Every structure is written in C-alpha cells, then in structure tokens.
Amino acid sequence: MVLVRTVAVVGATGAVGEDLRTLLEERDFPCDRVVFAASPRSAGRTLGFRGRDVTVRAVTDHGLFDGVDVALFSAGAGVSARHAPRAVAAGAVVVDNSSAWRMDPDVPLVVTEVNPSALDHVPKGIVANPNCTTMIAMLPLKALHDAYGLTGFVATSYQAAGGAGQKGIDELYGQVPGLLAEPGLLRHDGPAAAKLVDHRVHLATLAFNVVPMLGTAVGDDGYTDEELKLRHESRRILDLPDLAVAPTCVRVPVAVGHAVAVRAVFHRRVDLADAVRLLGGFPGLVVEPLPTPLEWAGRDDVAVGRIRTDLDDPRALSFFVVGDNLRKGAALNTVQIAEALEGRGAV
Question: pTM of whole model > 0.70?
C-alpha cells in the first residue's frame, strides 16, 4: 500500500466536511498530514484531527495545494469549478462532491459499489461524486440490473431538509415553534398556518408539510435541476444512455436522511425471492422490512424495503430505499473513492 502523504479537505467546516473529517479518522485513511480549507470567513478556525489541532486555511490561499496528494472537495459547484483545477495543477487528484464536474465526459462519476472500474481512467485528475439522491438509488438498481436488465424506473424522492445544508435544517427547526404556538391553525386554516413562518431556503413552509418541488425549474417541461440530476447521473453511472427515468423530487420535514420510492422495469420477469436475495447480498445494501430516514441516519449502509412485484407487470419491481444523505450520499462515497484510488496507486 502506497502512503498518501497529504489529504486536503475543502469545505472542511460544513456539514459534509465534518463527516469527511470524521470518516478519514474512523476509517484510518493512510495519510500523515491534512490540510483543512474553507471560505475566507472560516479561515483561522482550528479543527481537531487525530488528536491534533489543524488551522483552517482559506481556499483562496496561494500554495494551498502544494504537496497535496488527494483533495476532497465539498464546498459547492462554484468553488469546485474554480479551485479543483488548481489542486490538479499542483499535483493532487481531486474527488469532488459538487455538481460541477458530474456531466463532464472526461470526469468519471462513481459510486464505489456500482462502477469502480470507472476509476481506471481519470484523464482530468478529477473524480465526481453523484448527487445524494442518485447515490442512494444506485445500489439497489445496480443489484437488480445485473440480473434482470434495467430498462427504466419511476422515482419519487423524499429528501431531508439537510440536503440544502445546515441552513435547510435550521429553517425547518425555526418554523416549528411558530406553528406549535397556534396549533388550531394546523387543523383548521392551512393558509394562515403557512403564513406564520417565513421560508427562504425551501420553496414553501416545510414544518408539518411536504414541498412537492425541489431545485430550480429547467426549461419548459416542468422538471427541476434536482430531478434531471437523477436522470442524467443514473444513465452515466449505470452506463445506460437510453435509460427511461421519470423523477419527482419532494422535500420532507426530516433533518437527515433521503428516501426514494422506486418502480423499476426490467427486460426479464422478476422473481421476488431472488430479487430480495440479490439486494441483501449487494455491498453496502441492507434489506429492512420498514426502512425510515430516522432509523438510518448516521449509518454507512443504505437500507431497502417494501419490496413488491408490480400488480400488473411481472417485469417490474417496487421498493423503498433510504440512506443518510450526508454520509453515503456525500462524505462516505467521497472517502471510498479516495480509498479506491489509493488502492490503485493513483494517488
């Protein structure tokens, strides 16, 4: 095993950055030096790592990536688009958790349990981490695709407030006291209740509610960028460019943990017992009768349950899949990619 001498975490002070730092320690990632970077306003803070204090540097610092072998980015698409090439130019391999590079044909888009062979060719020195919702759905879809040949799927996501970052969680929590102060409004006058609380992060009041639109509308077809990520990224990861995907993304009043209800259609007839066996044997995937975001928050595995053959089509299977959007949906897969690169001697 080749020792990775220096790892940089860009976005180290954010929610995913915190999980990245924790996972590097928990998984004993092979490095002898870390660099923590964030926005200039966070520069100067100290963060602990393996019993030592590390001072956070500004991502704009000259020479930030000197001597860095692998840089883990989770600081937004704008930061990644601007600074990931700097890291590569300084000699690092970048694993990026933003949307900046996901559709670049020269940047592999990787879920480590699904398409690790994509790491054999990293022409730009950058590897992209998928969207957290796509990530969670890919594990059961890949397990079933290998046996039955996936042709398409309908996916309705139930995405946690934390998918919008800490500000999304804070807004949800901040709305609850105002609504609880007037409980009668929740029962009798929905419009008045919704007006009791402001919403800036989510597209409507989230507390005691669901918001059936997530992201920014793209074009005239009514779909959002978040929904199109699920379509485009699934096609790339599974190497199925014509895969039919019908996505709907919904924000729900959950702090952490995304869920996706999936109806998948295959070339061949699906045997339920065999499908359950395949799902239970797939790495990183656990079959659970009733998986919920609350139960699976903080866990590395993805849980799949409510597995049912379709009522009308023997080639279709429905299931409900749940995963922690900050861990497997973001930080864990980023670290797993770095581990896979290190195992290949690519860093």
Answer: yes
